[in-house]
């Protein structure tokens, strides 16, 4: 543990930050700069998720130069190999260890926040597994991926089928012998399916509606092009989809082995069996929608649309770059399967890669919508003194990532400082009356 521990003797803090991941530590960095008394409460240990909920071959899908945590950027502080490469799991944890040390946040680990309750007099009660605290302001920085989503039909699967969620997957060798069904083709599902496929396992992949994008196009990483085009600076308030962009599934691509496209059609040519959306289960027979061709075509359309926007940018700015080309499918499903018998197909393992749902039930404030997501404007809620940080598209594409969380944290701490100054002014006026 590199951060200094804070005693619980002082129960009140100006700000309590819930969560010791990159978001919570980023908030602490700026709160320290502003001289604001605060405490970070972490249920496990700082940056726990990165160490414990990623598979062994995991690598970032964003290039290293985008890793720009406050006061500790990859380029300036972390002695990595290549700003345009993609950090692997061990490198990510080494980078984060350096960030934890640099921030030296006032943090208490192993503390579960059980309730955050607004007080009538202002501020909050914070009830935890290690006692009671109070705070003038609370930043919820525990992320938005809390409860693994597993469909109810999983309860009816044969007892001999090994099931796990993507957060539990580590490597192909850890699974029982036999074939594997991966359900979901977002970033985790596509990459886990690739990991198994490269290890020689027979994979069945139930394809969802996730889009895809190219890794490299016209001479450089697509991320570099999009950054140059200003895409990562677009706020949710100016994005064409507005807040609807928060419901979008991430594009699948990989940083593995220096980075490349993930082409599910290529996997099919090599022996992976692609299926449509999972719809049901009868005994040992799983049913799938006949929408595989539609899903693949939709993902490819996004791929070509992104490349087309890069083509337009290059042309408009007279940039010299290698010629581009439109992706043309190298495989199409001749006849889609609506049913697969697990026993006949030799499927012994199922990996659920269909995401997470938020769980903010411990925050007792009237700021949530019907799906349990907080309503906010750039992390600022309608409940005075309550803020959220580290959520996907809190404000920009990078909000929940190493690339954008610093800007969000800076913005919230500025809001906190402004609110504190206003409260001080009002207090002085009240005292003078």
From TrEMBL:
<dbReference type="InterPro" id="IPR050982">
    <property type="entry name" value="Auxin_biosynth/cation_transpt"/>
</dbReference>
<protein>
    <submittedName>
        <fullName>Putative flavoprotein involved in K+ transport</fullName>
    </submittedName>
</protein>
<dbReference type="InterPro" id="IPR024000">
    <property type="entry name" value="CHP04046_FMN-dependent"/>
</dbReference>
<dbReference type="InterPro" id="IPR036188">
    <property type="entry name" value="FAD/NAD-bd_sf"/>
</dbReference>
<dbReference type="Pfam" id="PF13738">
    <property type="entry name" value="Pyr_redox_3"/>
</dbReference>
<dbReference type="GO" id="GO:0004497">
    <property type="term" value="F:monooxygenase activity"/>
</dbReference>
<keyword id="KW-0560">Oxidoreductase</keyword>
<dbReference type="GO" id="GO:0050660">
    <property type="term" value="F:flavin adenine dinucleotide binding"/>
</dbReference>
